[in-house]
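Long-time lurker. I teach an intro course on protein structure, and each term I like to show students one example going from raw sequence to a predicted 3D structure in token notation. This year I'd like something fresh instead of my usual example. Would anyone be willing to generate the tokens for the chain below so I can use it in lecture? Attribution to the forum is fine with me.
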Amino acid sequence: MVSPEPMYTIVRAKENDYELLSVLGSRTFMESHGSSAGKADIDRYVMEKYNHGVFKAELSAPKNLYHIIYQNGLAAGYSKIILNARHPAIVEKNASKLERLYLLKDFYDLKLGSELFAFNLELSKKNGQKGMWLFVWKENHRAVNFYKKAGFGIIGSHDFKITETHSNPNHHMFLAY
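-- Reply from a regular --
Happy to contribute to a lecture. Here you go:
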């Protein structure tokens, strides 16, 4: 007998999901960027950017569209997209910013990142957007290759500030629809 495919669901995060997003955000950032700076810098960044208060505020702002992907009932990752997010390097007026797309390492082999990305891409298109842009750490080769495979092109660079004394070089990428 063949076992059924594992089930995933993607749901819009609610304001009371701030604790879950804080845990997911901290853990996924550490898994994907933990080696991008010294431990003290990374720990400070995570403490400042992935705490309950930050997520409470982010979830209460209507422009921030957070979604959580669950695999067989377990939270596996999350995304954040902002519609109509202007950037001087983007000509299109209606372009989304994919600000976060993170998956826990335990779920990488299930292609859930691709599913979550496809969900955000469709959401963007359904809302009349003409493209999507993002920043990705240049040393996160897995993510850079993922976005290139999805059709994104590198249009510039960006220094992602971790602390006052440390920034990580990022690609600025764009996908026109």
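Some talking points for your students: The chain is about 35% helix and 35% strand. The two ends are 42 Å apart (CA to CA).
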